[in-house]
Design brief:
Blueprint: H1 2-20, H2 29-43, H3 47-51, H4 55-90, H5 96-135
Helix pairs in contact: 1-4, 4-5
Protein backbone atom coordinates (compact mmCIF):
# COMPACT_ATOMS: atom_id res chain seq x y z
CA UNK A 1 0.00 0.00 0.00
CA UNK A 2 2.82 2.36 0.87
CA UNK A 3 4.50 1.67 -2.49
CA UNK A 4 1.32 2.68 -4.32
CA UNK A 5 1.22 5.96 -2.41
CA UNK A 6 4.86 6.69 -3.27
CA UNK A 7 4.32 5.87 -6.95
CA UNK A 8 1.16 7.99 -7.05
CA UNK A 9 2.95 10.97 -5.49
CA UNK A 10 5.82 10.63 -7.96
CA UNK A 11 3.36 10.52 -10.85
CA UNK A 12 1.45 13.57 -9.60
CA UNK A 13 4.61 15.59 -9.00
CA UNK A 14 5.96 14.64 -12.44
CA UNK A 15 2.70 15.76 -14.03
CA UNK A 16 2.88 19.07 -12.14
CA UNK A 17 6.42 19.61 -13.42
CA UNK A 18 5.24 18.79 -16.94
CA UNK A 19 2.49 21.38 -16.72
CA UNK A 20 4.84 24.01 -15.26
CA UNK A 21 7.60 23.49 -17.85
CA UNK A 22 6.18 25.88 -20.51
CA UNK A 23 6.09 28.68 -17.96
CA UNK A 24 9.80 28.34 -17.16
CA UNK A 25 10.91 30.68 -19.92
CA UNK A 26 10.90 28.46 -22.97
CA UNK A 27 10.01 30.48 -26.02
CA UNK A 28 8.72 29.38 -29.36
CA UNK A 29 11.41 29.69 -32.08
CA UNK A 30 8.81 30.72 -34.64
CA UNK A 31 7.74 33.68 -32.49
CA UNK A 32 11.39 34.69 -32.12
CA UNK A 33 11.80 34.72 -35.90
CA UNK A 34 8.69 36.85 -36.34
CA UNK A 35 9.81 39.23 -33.61
CA UNK A 36 13.17 39.66 -35.35
CA UNK A 37 11.58 40.18 -38.78
CA UNK A 38 8.85 42.60 -37.68
CA UNK A 39 11.07 45.74 -37.71
CA UNK A 40 12.43 44.85 -41.15
CA UNK A 41 8.94 44.22 -42.49
CA UNK A 42 7.64 47.53 -41.21
CA UNK A 43 10.42 49.38 -43.05
CA UNK A 44 9.48 47.74 -46.33
CA UNK A 45 5.72 47.91 -45.78
CA UNK A 46 5.26 44.20 -45.15
CA UNK A 47 4.31 44.33 -41.47
CA UNK A 48 0.78 42.99 -42.08
CA UNK A 49 2.19 39.84 -43.67
CA UNK A 50 4.47 39.23 -40.72
CA UNK A 51 1.67 39.67 -38.18
CA UNK A 52 -0.45 36.88 -39.67
CA UNK A 53 1.19 33.48 -39.32
CA UNK A 54 0.84 30.80 -41.92
CA UNK A 55 -1.82 28.24 -40.94
CA UNK A 56 0.41 25.38 -42.09
CA UNK A 57 3.14 26.45 -39.67
CA UNK A 58 0.62 26.78 -36.85
CA UNK A 59 -0.67 23.28 -37.56
CA UNK A 60 2.86 21.85 -37.60
CA UNK A 61 3.70 23.52 -34.29
CA UNK A 62 0.50 22.34 -32.60
CA UNK A 63 0.88 18.76 -33.80
CA UNK A 64 4.51 18.72 -32.65
CA UNK A 65 3.51 20.01 -29.21
CA UNK A 66 0.87 17.28 -28.90
CA UNK A 67 3.44 14.64 -29.88
CA UNK A 68 5.97 16.04 -27.40
CA UNK A 69 3.44 16.03 -24.55
CA UNK A 70 2.43 12.44 -25.37
CA UNK A 71 6.06 11.32 -25.48
CA UNK A 72 6.79 13.12 -22.21
CA UNK A 73 3.86 11.39 -20.52
CA UNK A 74 5.06 8.03 -21.83
CA UNK A 75 8.57 8.75 -20.54
CA UNK A 76 7.15 9.54 -17.10
CA UNK A 77 5.29 6.23 -17.13
CA UNK A 78 8.49 4.35 -17.99
CA UNK A 79 10.44 6.12 -15.24
CA UNK A 80 7.72 5.16 -12.77
CA UNK A 81 7.97 1.57 -14.03
CA UNK A 82 11.72 1.65 -13.44
CA UNK A 83 11.19 2.90 -9.89
CA UNK A 84 8.58 0.18 -9.34
CA UNK A 85 10.98 -2.49 -10.64
CA UNK A 86 13.72 -1.22 -8.35
CA UNK A 87 11.39 -1.31 -5.35
CA UNK A 88 10.24 -4.80 -6.34
CA UNK A 89 13.85 -5.95 -6.55
CA UNK A 90 14.75 -4.44 -3.19
CA UNK A 91 11.79 -6.09 -1.48
CA UNK A 92 12.33 -9.51 -3.10
CA UNK A 93 14.17 -10.80 0.00
CA UNK A 94 15.95 -13.51 -1.93
CA UNK A 95 12.88 -14.75 -3.79
CA UNK A 96 14.35 -15.57 -7.19
CA UNK A 97 11.01 -15.31 -9.01
CA UNK A 98 10.45 -11.74 -7.82
CA UNK A 99 14.05 -10.81 -8.65
CA UNK A 100 13.64 -12.12 -12.19
CA UNK A 101 10.32 -10.31 -12.55
CA UNK A 102 11.92 -7.08 -11.33
CA UNK A 103 14.87 -7.48 -13.70
CA UNK A 104 12.53 -8.13 -16.64
CA UNK A 105 10.39 -5.09 -15.76
CA UNK A 106 13.49 -2.95 -15.39
CA UNK A 107 14.88 -4.17 -18.72
CA UNK A 108 11.59 -3.52 -20.53
CA UNK A 109 11.19 -0.08 -18.97
CA UNK A 110 14.73 0.87 -19.98
CA UNK A 111 14.13 -0.28 -23.56
CA UNK A 112 10.88 1.71 -23.62
CA UNK A 113 12.63 4.79 -22.27
CA UNK A 114 15.33 4.53 -24.95
CA UNK A 115 12.66 4.24 -27.66
CA UNK A 116 10.81 7.25 -26.26
CA UNK A 117 14.03 9.33 -26.16
CA UNK A 118 14.83 8.39 -29.76
CA UNK A 119 11.27 9.26 -30.83
CA UNK A 120 11.49 12.60 -29.04
CA UNK A 121 14.81 13.42 -30.74
CA UNK A 122 13.48 12.39 -34.15
CA UNK A 123 10.32 14.46 -33.68
CA UNK A 124 12.32 17.50 -32.61
CA UNK A 125 14.67 17.17 -35.59
CA UNK A 126 11.91 16.61 -38.15
CA UNK A 127 9.76 19.48 -36.89
CA UNK A 128 12.71 21.89 -36.93
CA UNK A 129 13.56 20.86 -40.51
CA UNK A 130 9.92 21.15 -41.64
CA UNK A 131 9.60 24.60 -40.06
CA UNK A 132 12.93 25.61 -41.57
CA UNK A 133 11.64 24.56 -44.98
CA UNK A 134 8.33 26.41 -44.63
CA UNK A 135 9.86 29.61 -43.27
CA UNK A 136 13.02 29.83 -45.33
Amino acid sequence: MRLKKVLASILVSSFCLLVATPALGTTDPLNQIYDNLRPIGSVYGQSTLLNSQNTQQILIIRVSRIIRVALTLLAIIFVVLMIYAGALWMTARGNQDRVEQAQQTLRNALIGLIIIAASYAATDYLVSKILEGTIG
